[in-house]
Amino acid sequence: MALAKIVYASMTGNTEEIADIVAKKLEELGHTVDVDECTTVDAADFEDADICIVATYTYGDGELPDEIVDFYEDLADLDLSGKIFGVVGSGDTFYDYFCKSVDEFETQFTFTGATKGADSVKVDLSAEDEDIENLEAFAEKVSEALA
């Protein structure tokens, strides 16, 4: 089956958990899945994957997490034509720009030529039962987009 690469940034563990939920579902669907923290990989690693997923949190008033900024900037320079992408993440509805980093990564992926496989999933803080269902449905849609 296909190779799915999930790159995440997580301060509290919430976004890592989100990435793991998506990874588990993609594995159940028969895909090979690599999950890596954003500081341990390069954006160019997406060139070897069929499915490219970013899981990020939003910091403060809508900022990208410091640790994923370089990855974000490098992503725009890639040609990911023929690949499927998706973005998931966590945030806090207390802030005005809830999960803004998710939206920014979705926009950044459009510059790569990759095809959006599913609508983004935004989680308020940590994944509850409904969020888990949404994340699993996201994984199914991304998988189906390969066909």
Description:
The radius of gyration is 14 Å and the shape is globular. The protein has one domain (3-146): Rossmann fold, CATH 3.40.50. Helices cover 34% and strands 22% of the residues. By secondary structure, the protein is an alpha/beta fold. The protein is built from four helices and six strands; from the N terminus they run βαββαβαββα. Strands 1, 2, 3, 4, 5 and 6 form a six-stranded parallel beta sheet that branches.
N-C termini distance: 11 Å
- Spell the H/E element sequence: EHEEHEHEEH
The helix-and-strand class reads alpha/beta
Topology, number of strands: 6
Number of contiguous helices: 4
Model regions low in confidence, pLDDT < 50 over at least 5 residues: none
Report on the biggest sheet.
6 strands, parallel
Q: What fraction of the residues are assigned to beta strands by DSSP?
A: 15-25%
Total domains, how many? 1
Calculate Rg over CA atoms. Answer: 14 Å
Q: If classified by CATH, what would the architecture be? A: 3-Layer(aba) Sandwich
Q: Looking at the structure, what is the overall shape?
A: globular
Average residue-wise pLDDT: 96
Family: Belongs to the flavodoxin family.
Function: Low-potential electron donor to a number of redox enzymes.
Protein name: Flavodoxin
Cofactor: FMN
